[in-house]
Amino acid sequence: MKQKKVAIIMGSQSDWPVMQHATTLLNAFDINYDTAVVSAHRTPSRLYAFASQATEHYSVIIAGAGGAAHLPGMTAALTCLPVIAVPVTSKALNGIDSLLSIVQMPKGVAVSTQAIGEPGAYNAGLMAVQILATSDAELQSRLEAWRQQQTDTVPNEVE
Ligand code: RP5
């Protein structure tokens, strides 16, 4: 079995329609991952248990939450692994609440915050690949080929 490298955690099952987009590039680059519901507010003991053992299992954590979105910051407080945050689009404030509650971390505890919603989740997966590629030459070369292919698909002219 391949070693798990990435954990994708989210505050609620209701975050999955957004968070599933974090798996797009992990699947494309054949990177193994786990998914779990871990709520900073509803399951604080689960969060503590997950974060305190995370370095034994993972290299990168992607954490998505909406509303009062404390999951990414609390996860970053409990582990030195890189935490990539996804502000999930919320019903009340369209994810502005999620973004602001994630992004403004106090000095000394870092979270890498992505865009609100699907693009943020997709890019969280991409960022995880980029982090893993810094210590994996073969993955780096596949990532560069992927980027070139993306560049090549952008037309010069408007049709
Ligand atoms: C947050 O509350 C979750 O991350 C989710 O985005 C939001 C709403 O959760 P549910 O009430 O749908 O479970 O903790």
UniProtKB/TrEMBL annotation:
UniProt binding sites for substrate: S12, D15, R42
Ranges for domain PurE: 4-154
Pathway the protein acts in: Purine metabolism; IMP biosynthesis via de novo pathway; 5-amino-1-(5-phospho-D-ribosyl)imidazole-4-carboxylate from 5-amino-1-(5-phospho-D-ribosyl)imidazole (N5-CAIR route): step 2/2
SUPFAM superfamilies: N5-CAIR mutase (phosphoribosylaminoimidazole carboxylase, PurE)
Transmembrane domains' residue ranges: none
Keyword Lyase: yes
A Pfam family this chain is assigned to: AIRC
Annotated family: Belongs to the AIR carboxylase family. Class I subfamily.
Name of the protein in question: N5-carboxyaminoimidazole ribonucleotide mutase
